[in-house]
Amino acid sequence: MVPAAATAYYRFTLLIFNCLLTFGSYFCFDMPSALQQQFQGNLSCLNSTESNETTDCVEGLGMTPQQYNLLYAIYAWTNAVVVILSGFLIDKLGSRVGINLFSFLVVLGSATFALGSHFKGTSYLLPLMLIGRLLFGSSNGSLIIAQDRIIAFWFKGRELSLAFGLQLTFSRLGSVLNFFLTPFFERNFGIQWTLWGGMLLCVLSFFSAIVVGVLDKVGTKQLGLDVLLQEESKKVRFQDIRHLSLRYWLLVVTIMFLYNGIFPFVADASKFIQDKYSGYSQQEASYIAGAIYDSSLLLFSIAGILVASLWPSVFLVVPHANIGTALGLATSVQMIGIGLCNLVVGQLLGNQSRNLKIPLWRWQQVMIFLLANIISCVIASIFLNIVDKCEGGALNMTTKRSESAQQETQEPSETSPLLRERSGENRIN
Fold this sequence. Notes:
The chain is mostly helical.
């Protein structure tokens, strides 16, 4: 009799809760972007006559553009440093330990960030908010690695890209709702309570992590793979990174340049829209800035059915036992690139008075810089496809062709792809 864990129903039930793991953290990640005016607004507007061409004085936390962009840069930098080690630890200790530990740290980081907003006008505000983003960044990137590793285990060789697309859809739903709801909540409850509301969504994601851990543990036991997974984890060594292929590194470079052209823009997009186009309110600008997530929300699942996109492609060129380490390295390089870009964008925008419009010539320099990153992404992806074609074309193989290729070397099985891989290795040896 086929165990329940071997059915599609079980896999997709686990996938639903796995998708919710990062819903709260994606919502919180771009809360500063949705509230950029408040983060950079004046400490007080009482008795103030200061105004610019389009808006009256906005009361807020009093950050400069450089300080504001530092909130994104420190997220990226800490993420870049921590994810290499955390990816390796996830491979060694297992995905269940990873999702519970890092989802808890996401809650702690978002709580510290919200706490910092209560100290506006003091020297404690920026350090507390930076510490919060530091904790949030280091744990959120690691949580995504554990989340991806679970999907790779349960869906590799089946509906991998579809599952990954659905996961990103749920995550981006958090981003979309942030741009729609956060300005509304800020107007009604203030910036402090709005940030605490984001923290509560991270708490809900933490409870989802507990459910995923239980389902994963029960499922692997039903399939008789719990001991096998422990054996595979013991064999993982950090030195295995030297065996990662050229296709993997080209994927990493492609991913880095792609996100370099997106995330630094989203961080400042609402301010750009209000500076360049007169007549837009903060909420309208926030809606437009979030449009990139609206489109991805609609297209991720469809793309998951049609193609093997960037992040799922990592699973196709890296052994299962090393997925955490490989994702950690890829995320680290990605975040190093984003962190550098956030600093560059902050420098290009300058350190002028918080409430004044940023000159359009500065925004033009930012757009040229972001365009250069996108062009570099296209060039890297061309080289990636050339190398992939020379090495068998696994990245451009359809799902049916991929399944046929596996069946040529492996016996059919209703159990996990990991077990099928292992049995194939035993026959070869």
